[in-house]
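Final report, closing paragraph on structural work. Over the funding period we assembled a curated collection of sequence-structure pairs, and we close with a single example.
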Amino acid sequence: MQALNAIVLSGREVLPLVEGGKGISVSNGESSGAWAAAGGIGTFSGVNADSFDERGNLIEQIYRGRTRRERHEELVAFAIRGGIHQARIAFEASGGRGRIHMNVLWEMAAAERVLHGILEGAKGLINGVTCGAGMPYRIAQICSHYGVHYYPIISSARAFRALWKRAYHRFREWLGAVVYEDPWLAGGHNGLSNSEDPTKPEDPFPRVRELRAQMKECGLDDTPIVMAGGVWYLREWEHWLSNPEIGPVAFQFGTRPLVTRESPISDAWKQRLLNLKEGDVFLNRFSPTGFYSSAVNNPFIQDLRDRSERQIPYTTQAIGEHDTPLPIGARSRVVYVAAQDAERARGWIAAGFSEALRTPDSTLIFVTPESGHEIHEDQVNCMGCLSACGFSNWSQEEPFTTGKKADPRSFCIQKTLQRISHSSEIDHQLMFAGHNAFRFASDPFYANGFVPTVSQLVERIATGD
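Its predicted structure, as stored:
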């Protein structure tokens, strides 16, 4: 493979290798600092990052507020303190090499307040901010205020065009690069639009070529594109290098850095990744954000799939084919369902799935009493971790509710991501991963369960492997 040329990102020449910024505590200051020290772009997660006390002990994110709004304020304070803490760790670990970026989700709780708080408290430590999961119009203005480069994450040329016309054209000098994240292959939340088929992946090359054409129309001929999602061996992307249709390009790695010594995830999680098979990562739409997301198809995801399969439509009055009464709940309130659905429901109830929960789509799902209790408890304990949540109906805008019924087919994303990040309990928690994670098992670099340092991984990637 041809040698990798340095590229200018966030004001410095670096290797065109970017660490993807995984969510809660999964990409931290230690891992991102090590990536930067190896000469690339290290990216820590600014989403409810961990902080520690003066003795180095982890400060648990325990919420004591009586209301959702009170707990929301606690969460924002945790997020700002943790982001500043991880920025300091990353800066020190980098040894002045590479660049340090922070990754945030535009749809996370109080995104603008958290950004201001971290960038104000960590001045000079953060060189760039990557931001996706939504349409982050204001990220440009916020970053320019602090003299920090911004890196919008998009999945189509159309999305970038909208962002450019509405806001980015006024802050072009701080646009570090445009991150194209493949909506079919990336891990975590994906940017599939309503017009795209989740079962029919598209070749990223023509989509990125279209993005470059759009960027040239905006006068951004030399602004790099970062290719994210589905990148494993660089030799498979060699035709992108020095290609005038693509222009300056860097490559982002989100899944491979999970299996490094500096990665903070548990050994159990690392071993699970090393033994995945093709197809084990499942593209789903269970996230309370409403976005598609990619996660390992473990018992946690399977439970969500089963919930949705034990689902029937209902009405509160006999209408049309909904002519069969079905008593549900502790008070045996009657709803009306189709005759064949009544038979299915009785079968689920007999099998122990006796709790019927109503969804916003006028359907019922059937779960065990234990699962029903957990769902209700998680909804009551909501701390407003998203700008708007389908699972709990939280909204950060007044009147602090989406106005819709909470959806029991989803889950508390804050709870499960905190648990998988801080324990070895992985099977019954949400485990995000890119769709190429199965390649750990066949990549000779990881033979016999080898877990490299970040430096060893970056050196390996740079060879094309």
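Residues 299-421 form one domain. The longest strand covers residues 99-105. We thank the funder for supporting this effort.
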